[in-house]
Amino acid sequence: MAWDIGSKRDAINPQFRSLSWRLLLSYLGVMMAISGTSMIAVYEFFSFSLYQQLDRQLLTLADAATHSFSEVKEHKKASKMDDFRGLDDDGDLDIPWQNIQQPSQGIEWFDPDRQLIAKAGKIFPPIDLSHYHRTYTINNQKIRTLTLQINRSSESQSEIIGYVRISESTESIQMVLKKLRLGMMLGGILVSGLTAFGGMWLTKQSLNPIEKSFEKLKQFTADASHELRNPLAGIRACVEVIQSHPERINPADIDKLKAIASGVNQMTSLVEDLLLLARQDQDDLPLTTNWVMIPLNELLEDLVEFLSPQAEEKEVQLILYMPTDVKIKGEGNQLWRLFLNLIENAIYYTDTGGKVIVYLEQQEKSVWVRIEDTGIGISLEQLPFVFDRLWRADQARNRRKGGSGLGLAIAQTLAQNHQGEITVTSQLGKGSCFSVRFPTPSHT
């Protein structure tokens, strides 16, 4: 069965687009992490400074209220009231704390038994004198308190004569911090936008020389591969002509000619592989619009029949399981090359007496082809690199005679060209499974 090659396609190479996005996202991630960390540090420092300033104010007021303890206590006795006296700050008591007290503050005096003597102001949280500093939350309002112990010292000992507690609402601090958060958020949005634009410009500037070098390398690979085809064809023709007249060949040179022919064939295969990959890099493979419906079951059946002598020579069972009729949209020669590479690879790395099984399965939205073998397998460390060009795992898979090291890379390229994907699972010493998924014709 013949598989025709279609015309060329015109698509955008996604390699540098993907790389530029990765670089841009990495740059943005680093910059956002630095900016975010800096903003958090500034916010925490500013918040700490505000609360520290508040605590100093509370301490100043507490010192003043401490010096007024005797006057407050005498004032209560003079009032002849059993309950505590509320000071209304009208100036009846000439005490220093009245000059520095704020409307958002509250002052409380307690006796040695922690019983309330008097209070002034409007902020009075629940009584708890066990903490020097404490923050209460009452009706969604935070209140900061500072408690001082009042001592009377003598030559022999120090006696506790009472306590004073200063309370103040942190509403003003919360408003300042809220404005700071809003400013940081707006600033963060602005910085993010500027960083994004700057990152895009820097990424483009960074990738331009790399992209130009890569394009030159691709062009060189394509040109070199193309230019090598004619000399190799000439060498092969000369060798074939010489081999067609064995009577003229010195017996000592027969093996040398065979080695030359083998080397030329290997070099020709490598050049063709490089040329195919170069065409893919330059988006020069057949247009998808010119693809036709390919009976994949027939293609695999022909391919298994084609490779059966190779499997029999190595005493490897080559088995095919498939439905009767499975079609996908694609290009025949590319699909033939894709599965030829995978099945040949499986046969080569399967020991004598082993099996290579090809499964074809059709699902609702996809078509799967799996090539399983009982070969030497691939180590877990090497699995991420199996589709790299010229990949070879020294301890697991030595490059086979006549192989170019490009077979799996070409298989992946051709699968992606058909909007498919290829994956591999493997266990060292037990075998590998290469799975190729294609979209069904109705989902392409």
From TrEMBL:
Residues 223-442 form the Histidine kinase domain. Keywords: Kinase, Membrane, Phosphoprotein, Transferase, Transmembrane, Transmembrane helix, Two-component regulatory system. Its EC number is 2.7.13.3. Gene3D superfamilies: 1.10.287.130, Histidine kinase-like ATPase, C-terminal domain. It comes from the Bacteria. The chain crosses the membrane at residues 24-46. One of its GO terms (molecular function) is phosphorelay sensor kinase activity. It catalyses: ATP + protein L-histidine = ADP + protein N-phospho-L-histidine. This is histidine kinase. It comes from Planktothrix paucivesiculata PCC 9631.
